[in-house]
Design a protein that fits this description.
With 286 residues, the chain is α/β, with parallel strands linked by helices. It has helices spanning 8-30, 45-60, 76-87, 107-112, 125-133, 141-152, 172-181, 196-201, 251-255, 269-285; strands at 4-5, 35-41, 64-70, 94-97, 161-165, 185-189, 205-208, 226-229, 233-234, 245-246, 260-261. It contains ten helices and eleven strands.
């Protein structure tokens, strides 16, 4: 039997409706409107689209959102001054600096300049350290979305073999830590892992964020496994499906073996924006 498709778009809409209700209650009871500041540096087309989607979602949920668009030529000190201003702005509860930043700007220094309690992406070393220590913290949005997806299908994480393919600070590492917090036995792999197929074949829960199209072959998937495909790659070249979006997993072949699987697009992607709203709400509550 083919795997069940996990509808991330539908789930995100349900959670966003819940967030909107909580925002309305927070306004009514405390007079607090959760506020998000988005900082966009340069004219990166994909970044502009992401920022526009995030702002629209915020406003739909009843939150306050403001955008600061800066030229790629801005001096690093000017960018840091803006973040300091936002750190001290009482109407701003969450700050997001859209990545990537232009060359010449120290990304690490910029992200570390955001107050940990306003770091809605969960990238500040304090928040990452809290995550590593198992303490309550703001966690990166995509890994949080993955947990919500697993929760939505009543996937019991405790005791399961979980394999994460990808070791980025944005998805792979925090996803592994969150699964570990939920008592999974976690293996963290990457594209240079030897015998990757063997590791993948043991996974009850497989999370793939490798950044390479269809690098995980469908035949590797353990029958009945839950497959969470974070990848989003646009095929190009001489292939007949030029321009088609695909994930990091061979979808059709994997679907014939897995129990549950996320599609690309429409799986993990919508949940990332939703968890941004979730983190903004939590920051405002605190």
């Amino acid at each position: 039997m083919p795997a069940k498709i996990i509808d991330g778009k539908k789930l995100s809409e349900e959670i966003q409706a819940e967030i909107a209700r909580e925002v309305a209650l927070l306004k009514k009871e405390k007079g607090i409107v959760p506020g998000l500041a988005v900082v966009l540096v340069g004219d990166h087309e994909a970044s502009r689209i992401y920022v526009r989607n995030k702002e629209a979602a915020c406003k739909k949920a009843g939150m306050f959102a403001e955008q600061h668009t800066l030229p790629a030529s801005i001096a690093e000190e000017e960018l840091l001054h803006l973040i300091t201003t936002l750190n001290h702005d009482p109407k701003i509860h969450a700050i997001l600096v859209q990545l990537p930043l232009p060359k010449g700007i120290d990304q690490k220094r910029v992200l570390e300049s955001i107050l940990p309690e306003k770091d809605v992406d969960g990238f500040h070393p304090t928040n990452m350290g809290n995550l590593l220590s198992g303490h309550t913290t703001i966690a990166p949005c995509t890994p949080m979305g993955i947990l919500k997806i697993l929760e939505s299908i009543d996937c019991r994480i405790e005791g399961k073999e979980a394999v994460v393919v990808g070791r980025s600070n944005i998805v792979g590492k925090p996803a592994a830590l969150l699964l570990l917090q939920h008592h999974a036995t976690v293996t963290l792999c990457h594209t240079r892992t030897r015998n990757l197929a063997d590791h993948v074949g043991r996974a009850d829960i497989l999370v793939v964020a490798a950044g390479q199209p269809e690098v995980i072959k469908g035949g590797w998937i353990k029958p009945g496994a839950v497959v969470i495909d974070v990848g989003m790659n646009r095929l190009a070249g001489a292939r007949p499906v030029t321009g088609k979006l695909v994930g990091d997993v061979e979808f059709e072949a994997a679907r014939s073996r897995a129990g549950w699987i996320t599609p690309v697009p429409g799986g993990v992607g919508p949940m990332t924006v939703t968890m941004l709203l979730w983190n903004t709400l939590q920051a405002a509550k605190k």
